[in-house]
């Protein structure tokens, strides 16, 4: 029995995030010139965060595609031609902008809040982290995710977008792991 797409995407994201966290821990140990010791608590927190946030992201992307379809049907010019599709440029631009501005802000805030809760931090500490970390993460994200969105929404088939996002997600998850300690 095949997993539903949201479950498959969530599992894939959690596994990639776990691997990225282990990689980030290895990078930290290498930089500090100390032997690598796996911090299982950090690994658990980071992976659990992915399990919590991935379904939200999955539903967000589905909603964007449903609201702003990326392809439009091209009418046949004669009876022998197959009906085709072409990129809907206004919808694609809208998806990229909405995803980067609203989706990025929502995802960043939820990441900071969720990780703080998983660490057992109280409301004031989480609020301070949100104030301190939100813009640096957003600005760093603007250096990577718009490119991913442009690729995904213009040249990557819809059924391959999760894979492309996950591949870039390795870089992002290492960055977040290094940032979050």
From TrEMBL:
The keyword Transcription regulation does not apply. It is found in: Membrane. It is a multi-pass membrane protein. InterPro entries: Mpv17_PMP22. Keywords: Membrane, Transmembrane, Transmembrane helix. The keyword Membrane applies. GO terms for cellular component: peroxisomal membrane. The chain crosses the membrane at residues 96-114, 134-155, 162-180. Its main location: membrane. Belongs to the peroxisomal membrane protein PXMP2/4 family. PANTHER family: PEROXISOMAL MEMBRANE PROTEIN 2, PEROXISOMAL MEMBRANE PROTEIN 2, PXMP2 MPV17. This is PXMP2/4 family protein 3. The lineage of its organism: Eukaryota, Fungi, Dikarya, Ascomycota, Pezizomycotina.
